[in-house]
Write a structure and sequence with these properties.
The protein is α/β, with parallel strands linked by helices. The chain has 4 domains: about 40 residues, no CATH class; about 150 residues, no CATH class; about 110 residues, Nucleotidyltransferase, domain 5, CATH 3.30.420; about 80 residues, no CATH class. The chain is built from 12 helices and 11 strands. A hairpin with a 6-residue loop joins strand 1 and strand 2.
Length: about 425
């Protein structure tokens, strides 16, 4: 005798299936299962449609947001202390936008369906650099700052989105560096402003101008890596504002210098030359002989550390500063010293070619120490010094030279230490 577990029907003629349902209840049960399955399919389809709409919306948000943020023009006076709070607020708003885009990329990459939808659209964004790149299937997505995408094999769109996220994180790091630089420049400005200023003493005696032809090429000093680095910590840096770049026709209208002891600035010298009677009457400048007499007292026997040292010394010599009176003084050309630890991109490219051919013999090139040329601007980039912030005046530039001299000397000693440890 069979008994239906659902309706309770029983009898000798009642047949039940393996689930204990009679024929009528079985049909009802199967109808319920079919309806539930259809409902679940509809829900899944609706979720896919919603995910697709969400993915497309997020993709548009990513593209538009990234392009908008990366095309933002920084304030023209980003490092101006007057606008410090306003500029920092602006930079923080950019960071917030980067973080929002990071959250979006993480949401997409965590959902396989959304990732595939965005991948389809990203595939349409791929740009090829040249015919060879297209042939091997290598391209980029410029709008998102993605540099390498392979299309001749299944693309890992999660990895692509991770590269995009990395670009955003690098952008945040750069902005944080800008914020830190704003605070550092403010500290530098206070430090420079509070440095004791050397008093220029007016004099009646006249100092005869020297002829450039009397000055032989100065013998540049070198950095001995086997000595103590602090032996080079006392020096003077000099910055000159002049009328032209030709020594014979050049006239100085401002001379600034900063004296360093133990790598710390301790005193500054700043003087404007009187080029006409009006400025002399306003007592805002001095005669060349007055400045050079005082400058000789200020420099004492300190070493000089200056980029393009020869040009600076010739100009000072022309105006009456006789550096030949102290033959034991040390002279360091910052740019020439930098050639011992930095290399041009042409040199690095040649090293890379040799390394690719035989990595067991040739060392891997150091790309972080590569420069376009040996200039103050390039050194400022390599050593993360701000060359243009706060509209640097002559004393600021002399202070910057001191920072760069320290950076180059430290680099020389540090690279030598690393070499010995190999």
């Amino acid at each position: 005798m069979g008994v239906c577990l659902k309706c309770g029907k029983k009898g000798l003629l009642v047949h039940v299936d393996e689930n204990g349902f009679c024929k009528k209840c079985r049909k009802e049960y199967e109808a319920q299962l079919a309806a539930e399955e259809a409902r679940q399919k509809e829900i899944i389809e609706q979720e896919k449609i919603a995910e697709e709409a969400r993915a497309n919306s997020l993709f548009d948000d990513i593209c538009n947001g990234y392009v908008a943020v990366t095309n933002l023009s920084y304030p023209s006076k980003l490092y101006d202390p007057v606008n410090k709070e306003e500029n920092i607020s602006f930079l923080n708003s950019v960071i917030n936008e980067f973080n929002r885009l990071i959250c979006i990329s993480e949401e997409i990459s965590s959902n396989e369906h959304m990732c595939s939808i965005v991948g389809m659209r990203l595939k349409d964004e791929i740009k090829y650099r040249d015919a060879r790149a297209e042939k091997i299937g290598c391209g980029s997505i410029p709008r998102l700052g993605i540099t390498t995408v392979w299309t001749d094999r299944p693309i890992d769109w999660v990895a692509v989105l991770k590269e995009f996220k990395k670009n955003l994180e690098n952008g945040i790091n750069r902005i944080n560096e800008d914020i830190a630089r704003i605070y550092n420049l403010e500290k530098e400005r206070l430090l420079i402003d509070n440095l004791p200023s050397f008093n220029i003493t007016p004099c009646k005696s006249s100092v005869s101008d020297y002829s450039i032809s009397d000055l032989l090429n100065l013998r540049l000093s070198k950095i001995d890596k086997w000595l103590d680095m602090d032996l080079y910590s006392d020096f003077i840096t000099v910055a000159i504002n002049s009328t032209s770049f030709e020594i014979d026709d050049d006239d100085i209208f401002e001379l600034a210098a900063v004296k360093f002891k133990n790598w710390k600035p301790v005193e500054k010298f700043d003087a404007k030359f009187s080029l006409d009677s009006k400025t002399q009457e306003e007592k805002c400048s001095y005669k060349p002989d007055e400045i050079m007499d005082s400058f000789s007292i200020f420099t004492e026997s300190y070493a000089f550390a200056i980029p393009n040292l020869s040009s600076h010394m010739k100009l000072l010599y022309k105006y009456g500063y006789n550096m030949l009176a102290m033959p034991k003084r040390r002279y360091y050309d910052i740019l020439k010293l930098s050639t011992t630890v930095l290399k041009t991109w042409d040199q690095v490219d040649r090293e890379e070619e040799l390394y690719s051919k035989n990595p067991d013999i040739h060392p891997c090139p150091d790309f972080e120490s590569a420069v376009d040329n040996f200039s103050v601007e390039q050194l400022s980039i390599v050593y993360d010094r701000d060359m243009y912030g706060t509209e640097r005046d002559c004393v600021d530039i002399a202070f910057l030279y001191g920072q760069l001299f320290h950076d180059v000397v430290y680099h020389i000693f540090n690279s030598e230490k690393e070499r010995r440890e190999l």
